[in-house]
Amino acid sequence: MSDLKQTVGFLHKVPLFHGLDNRHLEHIAKCMVERDFPVGHSIVTQGKGGEGFFVIVSGKAEAIRELALLDDGLRTA
Fold first, then answer.
1. In contact, 8 and 25? CB cutoff 8 Å
2. Which terminus of the chain is less hemmed in, N or C, by CB atoms within 10 Å?
3. What are the tens digits of pLDDT across the range 30-69?
4. Smallest Cα–Cα separation from 56: which of 6, 4, 11?
């Protein structure tokens, strides 16, 4: 989504943003950074710092939690 009008059009379809007018959606669109991730690539890792959130335009993502009981790692729950 390279142009502002196209991005705002997409944001109108995102349930989280329902009720926002074009001015607010344009502000959000200007703050967005488009990223592509290869299949199987982790988008975020639990326990690491994060800022913002992701809106998936195409494809799918899965949330996975590993428990220390199962993998001898740090506790995640």
1. yes
2. C
3. 999 999 999 988 887 777 766 778 888 899 988 776 655 5
4. 11
pLDDT confidence of 77, banded at 50, 70, 90? very low
Residue 53 CA to residue 38 CA, distance in Å, equals 18
Rounded CA-CA distance 65/62 in Å is: 10
Q: What is the 3-state secondary structure (H, E, C) of 40-65?
A: CCCCCCCCCCCCCCCCCCCCCCCCCC
> Within 10 A of 24 (CB to CB), how many other CB atoms are there?
13
Amino acid 42: pLDDT: 85
